[in-house]
Model the fold of this input.
Amino acid sequence: MQSANSKSLGMKSSFCSVTNEPSPNATRSFGSDFHISYNPRSAGYGSDTTAIVLQDRVFFVLKGDHAEALCKIAAEEGATGCAAYFAQNIDRASDFSEHLMATGVSDDPFALGPAALEVLGQEGVDRIATAAKAQMDSRTAQ
Done:
């Protein structure tokens, strides 16, 4: 079910083409290369999640509701602004997020890197990779 907040952000729900069931996610596209997806359900992820989805195949997932902030940034600054927001909120990254693979911080068996580079640019990829490495270093130091 779509909340009033997601409607006011221009987000829409859809149906799964395989099951014909309503998708739990509300999404808003920003051109053909990326969209913001908010899932209010905690099943499977442990909390509600917001994702920056690149080319319908790379998912940068944050725990919690970041839909309003990300939709605003996406409309004003595009994918580069979303990359900056993700890097600033790296401590909220879900364990299911693909940012480590897509930015080259960990192995990338699914070849997600080229899509991330194409949509976010080298600066966006580097910004997220730097934030992720810093977070990993701080966890190791504890």
